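EI: anyone free to look at a 177-residue chain?
SC: sure, send it
EI:
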Amino acid sequence: MTDRMKSLTLALAACALLAVLPADASAQEARTDTEVIRSWQDSVKLDGRTETRRVEVAFDYAQGVTLRRTYDATGALLRTETVDGQPQPSEAEIADATAIITSDDELSALIEQSGATVEGGFIYSAEGFERPLAACGPGARCLQFDLIAPSKLESVRFVVVDLATRQIVERDLFPNL
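SC: here you go
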């Protein structure tokens, strides 16, 4: 899928989410579900035979942890493990965060005025920041976005959304840029 098609897909998903989101993004409730981020089939050898396993990487929003779950061929859960770190976000999570950004009064006005597009959606990492965002500590699932100018040559603003709380935790990550 080309970058343009991905952007269009995310924009359409964000529009669909906007239709079901409350007008005030801050009125949304924190997530308590577990979202499957990725899953795949795996073959394992046991006692000389090959068996199929389904493996899922998921984020448990209630506990704020990444899980790896393994199922047998019948769908029975064999094992759940807590995994260090956070997986890259799913397209659905990026669309959800984009909808939160575009439904925010201040940011939607900025986007409209500047003609910016919302791009990015990668995991915010506090490493390397002199003063990391306290809201993005343990249990959070923070994604960083770039509101990028139509020229694609400059950023209008960097924004951070915590999907666990469904809140914008930083509206201007680099105010001096």
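EI: The two ends are 32 Å apart (CA to CA).
SC: 👍
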